[in-house]
Amino acid sequence: MKLLRWTILLLIWGGAMQGAILVGSLSTKWSHVLCGPWGCGPRVEDLLACHLFWLAMLCAPLYLLWHCDAGLCRQAGYVLIGAGSLMLGAVVFYELFTWLPRVDSSLYIYLPQRLFYAVVTFVELPMLQFLLFGFACLYLRKKPSPFDSTETSASETEPN
After folding, report:
1. Could you give the CA distance from residue 13 to residue 11 in angstroms, rounded to a whole number?
2. Are 17 and 4 in contact (CB under 8 A)?
């Protein structure tokens, strides 16, 4: 029964990754909405496909982590939030030190859009997905997993 369950989960996982990639082949009227004085980006469908692929790919490790000890899940949440925050900070600092000196001062009002553009189009690493899964590990896993140890030994319950 466990083998059947894991086979079905692996098939769903593979299908989700394939489906995420197929999103890039769609053609919608929103294809080039990320253009403006802050730059012109790739098609929205391609960005969505990349971000969905990272989400689908990281779901399997998150599922395994979710069924581990709650303390381990919480620690992984802190690590994921830290890694995502470092990547986010690096992208923001890079844009501040490369884009601002190159543009006319009249375009400084577009800095928030440029930072949003830079964060959304950064698909080389799962920055946003790390943040999302990190918060999920911390805040959504409140109830104990069936794999958590619920047995307490006699020495833990007796006072010293």
Report:
1. 5
2. no
> What's the rounded Cα separation, in Å, for the pair 150 and 65?
18
Q: What is the mean pLDDT of the chain?
A: 84
Q: Collapse the DSSP code of 36 into the 3-class scheme (helix H, G, I; strand E, B; otherwise coil) and give the result.
A: strand
Domain ranges of the chain: 2-143
CA-angle at 27, arms to 23 and 32, nearest 5°: 100
Of 52, 43, 62, the C-alpha closest to 15 is: 52
- State residue 146's pLDDT score: 54
| Tokens read off for 6 | 């894991």
**CA distance between the termini of the chain:** 45
Is residue 106 within 8 A of residue 37, CB to CB? The reply is: no
Whole-structure pTM value? 0.76
With left for phi above 0 and alpha for psi between -120 and 50, is residue 33 left, alpha or beta? Answer: alpha
pLDDT in tens, 93-108: 999 999 889 989 898 9
Token digits for 35?
A: 């253009």
Q: Could you give the CA distance from residue 116 to residue 75 in angstroms, rounded to a whole number?
A: 29
Sign of CA dihedral 81, 84, 90, 96: negative
- Radius of gyration of the chain, Cα coordinates, nearest whole angstrom: 21
